[in-house]
Amino acid sequence: MGRDTHRLIREMNLSYLLLIQRLLIEDKATGMSSIGVSSEVADLLVGLSLKEIARLASVSQILSSFRFHDHTVLSALTHSQVGSAVTARASTYEPVVQSA
């Protein structure tokens, strides 16, 4: 792997780790749902120091992953229907409330 590629992966990992730590601090339940981790992993991520986050970000693999478990979401994204994908993803995590 080239140095530039490794640098880009490190930067992306650092941004990702800082973002998920912030999400978990602000709203643990929503953060856990958004990134798909258990309460124990969430607690571990929240407890990381900046030095530990920087060290973890320096690994040579991308730490984030896409979670395309729903065919509707993946199909919508591959057909450039981003609005449909967002709606489909939201409907898998939140109940739809209809007024009478």
TrEMBL record:
Pfam families per record: FlhD (PF05247)
One of the record's GO molecular function terms: DNA binding
Cleavable signal peptide: none
Keyword Disulfide bond among record annotations: yes
SUPFAM superfamilies per UniProt: Flagellar transcriptional activator FlhD
GO BP, one annotated term: bacterial-type flagellum assembly
Source organism of this protein record: Paraburkholderia phenazinium
Role played: Functions in complex with FlhC as a master transcriptional regulator that regulates transcription of several flagellar and non-flagellar operons by binding to their promoter region. Activates expression of class 2 flagellar genes, including fliA, which is a flagellum-specific sigma factor that turns on the class 3 genes. Also regulates genes whose products function in a variety of physiological pathways.
Record flagged with keyword DNA damage: no
Protein name: Flagellar transcriptional activator FlhD
InterPro entries listed in its UniProt record: Flagellar_FlhD (IPR023559), FlhD_sf (IPR036194)
Keyword annotations from UniProtKB, A to Z: Activator, Bacterial flagellum biogenesis, Cell projection, Cilium, Cytoplasm, Disulfide bond, DNA-binding, Flagellum, Transcription, Transcription regulation
